[in-house]
DNA sequence: CAGAATACCTGCGGGC
DNA sequence: TGCCCGCAGGTATTCT
């Protein structure tokens, strides 16, 4: 489900509820997520104070005195603040219960998400240590992209979706950024010009920032921690619009598969250059 | 090493 | 109505 703007939205919504709170109990109803939830998680979190909730790429880091809970929402995960009177649904796999009566509830139908406990520096954890740059940080530049793309034959769309290069960009925002930059999604990464790299970096930053302002994108069922949808879906230009008219030139948008992922683009506004 | 394919899992919509 | 197929916001792992 969530790409960077959705994870950022979840983090911002959760922060005021859980930072400073003390964990009273943890209930794991289904421990088989992407990896099994540690059987000692309840003991690890017992009586711990949440010092900080942060985001790295699409991962959320919940830091307590004893360590850090690394959380990922996969394709269909969500985190919400609920109370003990909130009805329990089929895929509500984990509750973290605070002494202030609030409950942080992890829900994930497809169970592609993860809750991983670590006592070490989370940035050295195998899940995080090879993550690429944060796209909204200043060090994510056209120069960086150009350098990393050199001699790479992979199409630019899966390239910018590779978290070892830059984190947080999934199928929706990759398509949107490429349209905004006027770059064909199949362009071999290494063939991008300096100008195209600059346009792509600008577009990525712009698309992600606008989406965060709108509270993320609700395609199907994304809800933030307060149970509200995101409103960026109204501004999607290509994602989910195959066959519909391009907002710039009115030609029907094309669809293809790239790295097993559906890809929508405009054959006029995103010409293939260099081939 | 790069790049592609596969695996994980449930739910939904479309076609028949 | 009901069954089967393909597809869905992700990414670690396995293959060629």
Structural description of this entry:
The structure is a single chain. The chain is 23% helix and 21% strand. The mean pLDDT is 94. It has helices at residues 4-18, 41-45, 142-149, 156-160, 171-181, 194-213, and strands at 23-28, 50-56, 59-64, 67-72, 78-82, 92-98, 103-107, 114-118, 254-258, 261-265. The longest helix is centred in the C-terminal third of the chain and has 20 residues, at 194-213. Strands 1-6-7-5 form a 4-stranded antiparallel β-sheet. It has a 4-stranded antiparallel β-sheet with strand order 2-3-4-8. A two-stranded antiparallel sheet has the order 9-10. Strand 9 and strand 10 (261-265) form a beta hairpin. The protein is built from 6 helices and 10 strands. The two termini are 34 Å apart. With 275 residues, it is α+β, with helices and mostly antiparallel strands. It binds a DNA duplex (16 and 16 nucleotides) through residues 1-3, 6, 34-35, 58, 72-76, 91, 108-113, 127, 152-154, 158, 161, 163, 170-173, 217, 219-220, 222, 239, 259-260, 262.
Name the descriptors.
alpha+beta, four-stranded antiparallel β-sheet, 23% helix, DNA-binding
